Amino acid sequence: MEHSYLKAWKAIQSALVLLLAGTVASCSTASSRSSARVELPRDTWISVADNQAKLYKAGESVDVGGEPMYLESPGYVGMILVPINGSASKIRPSSRRISEWTSEQVQADLDQKLSSLVEETNRVQVLMSKRQSKEALSSVSSLQLRYPKVAYLNFLKASALYLDGDRAQARAVLEQALLAYPNHAQARELYMSLGGDASRVPASTTPKQQQPEEKYP
Q1: Is 113 in the same domain as 35?
Q2: Structural domain that includes position 108
Q3: C-alpha distances in angstroms, 167 versus 80, 154, 161, 162, 164?
Q4: For the domain that residue 159 is a member of, what is the CATH number?
Q5: What is the pLDDT of residues 159-181, one digit of tens each?
Q6: Which is higher by pLDDT, 184 or 12?
Q7: Cα separations in angstroms, 9 against 6, 21, 179, 182
Q8: CA distances to 9, 44, 69, 201 from 20, in Å
Q9: What is the pTM of this model?
Q10: Are 41 and 90 found together in one domain?
Q11: d(C-alpha 119, C-alpha 113), whole Å
Q12: Which helix or strand (DSSP H or E) is residue 54 part of?
């Protein structure tokens, strides 16, 4: 029966499969125990079969064993190590950064999504300038469904709620937004003007501008 992590691996487009040197003579060869050890160049999560992944630190060595191993390091392309009879005693895997595998098509898709987000954000601002708060709220909600990880959209939503007269909900949304972006001065000012509690949001890390020293003759 195919291991579940191998099934998941097939769904990863940018995958690197590293075969240890040698020749597979039969199915039993793959299951035979290998004496090879993997020297990890960076912190790596390793999972074998259906076991939970375990974190190993950079510089550690791990026995390959008789089962395929799935290696993941943050920011790098993952890989599967397949044990093969007679493989080298030491293996130092070298995977490329994910950013190096980004194709022109992926970049084009990102550019298109960013352009769409900017265009629709501008549309929401136009709606608010016309005091069409209901339409603005509907548009922001649609954007947040499509881009759930863009926390900055909460500032836009809070503005629309404030314009619609829902001060309590605007304050609640601003509170969530300031957790992600504590240095947004205008949002913080609006939050406090709506009765916000400064102790519920992180302090701004932006240094205050020092007033020029006055010199007297």
Answers
A1: no
A2: 103-197
A3: 53, 14, 7, 5, 8
A4: 1.25.40.10
A5: 999 999 999 999 999 888 888 88
A6: 184
A7: 5, 21, 35, 38
A8: 18, 18, 12, 52
A9: 0.49
A10: yes
A11: 10
A12: strand 54-56
